Amino acid sequence: MYTLLSGLYKHLVQKDDYFLLILGLDNAGKSTYLEAAKTKFKKDYKSLNASKITTTVGLNIGQVDVSGIRINFWDLGGQEDLQSLWDKYYAECHAVIYVVDSADRERMDESKEVFDRVIGSEHLIGVPLFYTCGPDGVHEGIDWLVECVKRNAANRPPKDADFS
Ligand SMILES: Nc1nc2c(ncn2[C@@H]2O[C@H](COP(=O)(O)OP(=O)(O)OP(=O)(O)O)[C@@H](O)[C@H]2O)c(=O)[nH]1
Ligand SMILES: [Mg+2]
């Protein structure tokens, strides 16, 4: 009986956990993108003032609940010496968001090179990838990714859900 009830409880309240990696050059707007996503999808979230967002050195984590699943964002630092840490997250992530600063024409080639390296990784084969030029349209972007990761769940199943 306990098993039955706990199974039902889990079914009703647990959310599947998916992990989305946010990559791109330093200063591309990754942390700003994450902030925009939290502002859009978290009720009553007080967004940080843009001037409060500083360069990411470690890992910046964000969590939002969308369409019955939990999205965990991993926003990594984009500085050149930090890029070597990105691939540690590839095997565990369910999708990649690659952020490009479309106003920064001078660094377009550099961004393209880094992008090519990312998509060339064997650990990302079959993983949905979203390429964006900033926080405009964050709502549509995340909605699209949510559908993608759900559809791709047979390849990359969600992590064990927690309760909340
Ligand atoms: N005008 C404008 N400024 C932006 C936009 N996105 C980011 N910025 C500014 O660009 C700067 C860098 O943004 P971040 O979000 O910290 O960039 P990041 O990609 O996280 O950088 P790293 O953490 O160093 O890898 C900040 O001063 C932001 O306010 C945007 O869409 N429009
Ligand atoms: Mg950042």
UniProtKB/TrEMBL annotation:
SMART domains: ARF (SM00177). Keywords: GTP-binding, Magnesium, Metal-binding, Nucleotide-binding. One of its GO terms (cellular component) is Golgi apparatus. GTP binds at G24, L25, D26, N27, A28, G29, K30, S31, G78. One of its GO terms (molecular function) is metal ion binding. One of its GO terms (biological process) is protein localization to Golgi apparatus. Signal peptide: none annotated. It comes from the Eukaryota. Mg(2+) binds at S31, T56. Trans-Golgi-associated GTPase that regulates protein sorting. Controls the targeting of ARL1 and its effector to the trans-Golgi. Required for the lipidation of chylomicrons in the intestine and required for VLDL lipidation in the liver. This is ADP-ribosylation factor-related protein 1.
